[in-house]
Design a protein that fits this description.
- The structure is a single chain.
- Helix content is 56%, strand content 14%.
- By secondary structure, the protein is α+β, with helices and mostly antiparallel strands.
- The chain folds into 2 domains: 3-58, no CATH class; 83-127.
- It has a 4-stranded antiparallel sheet, covered by helices on one side.
- The longest helix is centred in the last third of the chain and has 23 residues, at 105-127.
Length: 128
């Protein structure tokens, strides 16, 4: 273990010990950011290492309205396509152009099936 890591760990332990001496309760839940134990003080839960309040909930319905809104803003998925989505869409467009020019029934079926499979894959990628 490096000296810096050991020093940081020692500081973390001291901060938690001070919080316990001041009347806090050590919880068996770790901070999602630093992985140190959380402390409960006056019905609020804190990470004394990150120096921030932490909310533990089973379901979003347990959160106050303002926290639900903040959570939705923070986790809102971007409308920008990922590289995988761009690639799949490009391949679908390439196949669509070939399908437009195709006259052989077997080729039409193969192209249609390939477009369908790529469309299903694109839907699965977007749902993730």
């Amino acid at each position: 273990m490096s000296n810096e890591k050991a020093k940081n760990e020692e500081i973390g332990i001291k901060v938690i010990a001070d919080a316990l001496k001041a009347g806090g309760t050590l919880l068996n839940v770790a901070c999602p950011n630093c992985n140190y134990p959380l402390i409960k003080v006056d019905e609020k839960i804190y990470c004394k290492i990150c120096n921030q309040e932490v909310y533990i909930y089973r379901d979003e319905s347990e959160l106050p309205k303002e926290y639900k809104q903040a959570l939705k803003q923070k986790t809102k998925v971007s409308s920008v396509d990922t590289e995988v989505e761009k690639t799949i869409k490009g391949k679908i467009e390439d196949l669509r152009k070939k399908l437009e020019e195709a006259v052989d029934p077997d080729e039409i079926v193969k192209l249609s099936e390939a477009i369908e499979k790529l469309s299903q894959t694109l839907k699965k990628v977007k749902d993730v």
